[in-house]
Design goal:
Blueprint (H helix, E strand, L loop, with lengths): L1 E10 L8 E5 L18 E5 L2 E5 L3 E4 L7 H4 L3 H24 L6 E3 L3 E2 L14 H5 L7 H22 L11 H7 L1 H6 L12 E6 L12 H5 L4 H11 L4 E3 L2 E7 L3 E5 L5 H8 L5 E3 L28 H6 L2 H12 L3 H7 L3 E4 L11 H4 L12 H8 L4 E6 L2 H12 L6 H19 L4 H5 L2 H6 L9 H8 L8 E5 H6 L1 H12 L6 H9 L8 H4 L6 H22 L10
Parallel strand pairs: 1-3, 4-6, 11-13, 11-14, 12-13, 14-15
Antiparallel strand pairs: 1-2, 1-5, 3-4, 6-7, 8-10, 9-10
Length: about 550
């Protein structure tokens, strides 16, 4: 027995369209031609004032009387109504779930889903030229995200209402010593007066067969650093000073630090600056010693390892120390002057912001704020240190950070959802704690799916300015560096009191391509959604405004014109 029924149904929420049912193959009273579909076998209905067309063909097969006996006892009209009611309800629910938006759908029979076209309009922050760079069709989810903007804006407003930039209480030097007894026993309080970098001589008790780097944690835990230490071993014994049967090695700390921020061009600045003959960096570009390794952190999610002692960190500057030692021992005044211009640098992009380890090692304060920060210890040994900061629009920094560190399923949709989740978590913290407590909250930072806190430049800079003077900082913008590399490098040379370069040296430094550029596969993902960009601009706006005020430079507000 075979029943084949084709129906056209129109359901409307307004008074313009009345319920219409036309069933081909049914009883005479049901055989009405629908004026909307004109006999084209579509299910047409309207939701929220928008017409939605659905085409479905139902074929009901009944093998034997018992299988459909109960159903056949209904009148044909009732069976038609029941079956089509269930079909319509199922299709509507499926369409809404899969589309993510109340837009027109055409689902062809039998249950074949067509494309979902969408044309999101420009947001206030996007220009037509920006749209030319969008090589990807907008996702259906972007429309849904735009509808979510008012609720997310409430979260941002809640955060903004609680922002308060307070001055932190500085720890006493004796309290610092109690926290790092070994560090204070190794690093002296005074350095050699005839060296531009902070250096001192330390006795070496080993023999000429002793490997000075046998226990260095950087060499033990990372294979890629072993070749570096092989070179250090070969040069070590030739650069010792000998007196009274004792051996002395020159130890040095950096004269300057590139302290941040990640995904802001610090690698490019490092690669160019190290081409200057007077600049010598650590053997490893980013030791992360002040913020992570001295606490035994490689990756925080992997737990704590043995703490890297300060000697392991000092080993990284031995190549530079060898050259400075050679200058100090030079017999001619010319050679002494040439080599003594060397300054040492270090470029860990975590130095400015990463204090996640404090909860594991320092007594917790009652207000949730860390009692000690990285800059407290650097200042204790090097009150005259020079500090370079490279920043960029925090909105773009966050997306670049996401593309670089996310491992899988990267997309504009995924980024938007992670931003929304991070904002909700940050707001929850701000409801109970101060801004500083939330920024340095290790649990919160680990819970947020994107590193929203890294872009709060004003919070970190203000805390650094509590121990260092403003004159000790050179704060640069990646946008300016990208547009005029030569000008940026001249500013750095002047800040570090470096000598001039020849035209050939300067050309080599400025004409080389940018380092650590976005990977091709990440570029293919396209930009973030305009609505995501707008949300992040709203969130970062008060922090950018404070930064521009502190630096007396409106460019650091990153306002789009």
């Amino acid at each position: 027995m075979r029943h084949c029924v084709n129906c056209c149904i129109q359901l409307s929420t307004d008074d313009t369209h009345k319920q219409q049912i036309g069933c081909q193959g049914g009883p005479p009273h049901c055989r009405q031609e629908c004026p909307t579909c004109k006999g084209e076998n579509k299910i047409v209905f309207r939701v929220d004032g928008k017409q939605m067309n659905l085409l479905a063909v139902l074929q009901v097969r009944a093998e034997g009387g018992e299988s459909w006996g109960g159903l056949l006892r209904f009148k044909k009209g009732k069976r038609c109504s029941l079956v089509f009611g269930l079909i319509i309800m199922t299709l509507v629910m499926a369409s809404y779930i899969l589309s993510g938006a109340h837009q027109e759908l055409l689902i062809s029979s039998p249950f074949h889903y067509g494309a979902f076209p969408s044309n999101p309009s420009l947001t206030d922050s996007e220009t037509p030229s920006d749209m030319k760079e969008h090589h990807h069709q907008p996702s259906v989810n972007n429309i849904s995200f735009i509808k979510d903007y008012p609720s997310i804006k409430l979260i941002i407003n809640s955060i903004a209402a609680r922002i308060e930039f307070t001055t932190r209480q500085l720890p006493d030097i004796e309290d610092l010593k109690k926290q790092e007894l070994h560090m204070f026993s190794v690093i002296p309080t005074k350095f050699l007066p005839n060296s531009k970098s902070p250096c001192w001589y330390e006795e070496f008790a080993g023999r000429n067969t002793t490997d000075p780097y046998v226990s260095n944690s950087y060499a033990l835990y990372s294979r890629r650093f072993r070749s570096t230490f092989d070179a250090l071993r070969k040069a070590f014994w030739g650069h010792l000073s000998h007196a009274g049967g004792r051996h002395f090695r020159l130890r040095c700390l950096p004269r300057f630090y590139i302290i941040g921020q990640p995904k802001c061009g610090t690698t490019d600045l490092y690669d160019r600056l190290r081409l200057h003959p007077e600049v010598k960096f650590s053997a490893i570009k980013e030791p992360h010693w002040w913020t992570r390794k001295r606490f035994g952190i490689v990756r925080l999610r992997d737990g704590l390892r043995d703490r890297y002692p300060v000697e392991d960190y000092l080993d990284l500057f031995d190549l530079a120390a060898h050259q400075i030692h050679q200058a100090l021992q030079a017999s001619s005044a010319k050679e002494h002057s040439k080599m003594n211009r060397i300054i040492i640098g270090e470029a860990s992009a975590s130095t400015m912001w990463d204090n996640n380890a404090w909860t594991f090692f320092y007594d917790n304060s009652t207000d949730g704020e860390p009692p000690f920060l990285t800059q407290d210890f650097i200042h204790a040994f090097q009150p005259d240190a020079k500090l370079i900061v490279m920043l960029r629009d925090p909105v773009e920094r966050l997306y670049s950070d996401y593309l670089y560190f996310a491992s899988s399923n990267k997309s504009a949709d995924d980024f938007h959802e992670k931003v929304t989740e991070a904002l909700q978590l940050f707001e929850n913290c701000m409801l109970d704690y101060s801004l500083r407590a939330c920024v340095y909250n290790n649990s919160l930072n680990n819970a947020m799916p994107v590193r929203l806190q890294v872009g709060l430049y004003a919070v970190y800079l203000l805390d650094w300015l509590t121990v260092f003077s403003k004159e000790q900082f050179l704060v640069l913008r990646l946008e300016d560096h990208a547009s005029n590399v030569s000008y940026t490098m001249h500013r750095v040379f002047q800040f570090l009191s470096l000598g001039p370069l020849s035209e050939k040296q300067m050309a080599l430094m400025t004409k080389s391509p940018a380092s650590n550029a976005r990977r091709p596969e990440d570029r293919n993902l396209g930009p973030m959604w305009p609505v995501t960009q707008r949300i992040l601009q709203d969130f970062y706006r008060p922090f950018n405004a404070k930064l521009a005020q502190v630096l007396a430079d409106k460019a650091f507000a990153w306002r789009k014109t």
